[in-house]
Amino acid sequence: MSADLQAIRHLYPFASHYLDVGGPRMHYVDEGTGPAVVMLHGNPTWSFYYRELIAALRCDHRVIAPDHVGCGLSDKPRRYRYTLATHIDNLERLLDRLGLEAVTLAVHDWGGAIGFGLAARRPDRVSRFIVFNTAAFFGPVPRRIRLCRLPVLGPLAVRGANAFARGAVWMACKNRNRMTPEVRAGYLLPYDSYAHRMAILRFVQDIPVRPNDCSYALLASIEASLPQFRNRPMIILWGMGDFCFNERFLDGWIERFPEAQVHRFPQAGHYVLEDAAEQIMPLVCRFLEPASCLQSAD
Questions:
Q1: By C-alpha distance, which of 59, 72, 278 is closest to 189?
Q2: Is-catalytic flag, 270?
Q3: Banded pLDDT at 10 (limits 50, 70, 90)
Q4: Deepest of 40, 73, 184, 217, by most Cβ within 10 A of its Cβ?
Q5: Number of separate domains in the chain
Q6: Active-site position among 17, 68, 196, 270
Q7: Is a pLDDT exceeding 80 seen at residue 296?
């Protein structure tokens, strides 16, 4: 992987940091100084998803972007409790280790449940929210994702054929010229073998669908905690062409956070930062700092 990583360093030019989270090492980016922005990716992405936003914000913010255990440049143990609770635990350890308080959370995909799970546990740690296509509440699971949860088909497709990660680089980005061969290689780089795709499968299997599912009760408690954050600043940036986190999820956010800033991107999909980065970054900069970051980005 090291040789492949060097090939995309011009896209992802960040120093690597690691935290021991009770055995595995969790990789994270830590760039810039100033108010902290913590960026949480989902499945099957990694901190690479946030690369352009990291570069734009580090001018006057401290940007932390971890790779969940099993993802990105983090360790990928075969035997590990890949659950929502574990990912929240790891995030809390990272914030404790770095001494971060009153952070801005940027969340995408599974990052929503993980980030709001941390906020529910430690509401004093989070001051603002940047919400990309994600959820921290229950919603419909697309059939194509449900198929990846099946006992035999799931492991064969997700780990054997790498269908989940490969499918995502085609289905999650609507603007095809943005998904260049180099960018596609960046997304797929950490998931280059059967052994390295365990977390992708476990994330899919951990989606809470029924009350007896492992993370169902935890997601229910996170959903119940959301009203306490209603008065905290939030910006929602939504790719309207997302087949998974569709407009019903956006409506769910607006219903819960009617005061949030909402920006819809009709020509963007699930990887909204790939499809609409040049539109999104000025909006995020204004949300965080009315002048300084935006001026630096110009």
A1: 72
A2: yes
A3: very high
A4: 40
A5: 1
A6: 270
A7: no
Quick one: average pLDDT of 225-248? 97
User: What 3-state DSSP class applies to 131?
Assistant: strand
* Residue type for position 115: G
Q: Please give the mean pLDDT across all residues of the chain.
A: 95
**In whole angstroms, what is the distance from residue 49 CA to residue 68 CA?**
13
Q: Report the CATH number that the domain containing residue 19 is assigned in CATH.
A: 3.40.50.1820
Q: What digits encode the pLDDT tens for the residues 81-117?
A: 999 999 999 999 999 999 999 999 999 999 999 999 9
| Of 62, 46, 59, residue with least CA distance to 5 | 46
Task: Name the residue type at position 112.
Answer: G
What b-and-e string marks burial along 37-52, b requiring 16 or more CB atoms within 10 Å of the CB? bbbbbbbbbbbbbbbe
Task: Look at residues 80, 73, 78, 82 and name the one whose alpha carbon lies nearest to residue 190.
Answer: 73
Residue 51's closest CA among 194, 214, 196, 186? 186
Domain extent, residue 20, equals 2-297
3-class SS letters over 71-122: CCCCCCCCCCCCCHHHHHHHHHHHHHHHCCCCEEEEEEEHHHHHHHHHHHHC
Give the active site residue among 109, 196, 206, 275.
Answer: 109
Residue 30 annotated in active site = no
Q: What is the pLDDT of residue 295?
A: 42
pLDDT over 90 percentage in the chain: 94
Mean pLDDT of 42-71: 97
- The residue annotated as part of the active site, out of 67, 206, 242, 275, is 242
Known catalytic residue at 242: yes
Task: Name the pairing type of β-strands 103-109 and 62-66.
Answer: unpaired
| Helix (H) / strand (E) containing 215 | none
Strands 62-66 and 36-40: parallel
pTM for this predicted structure: 0.95
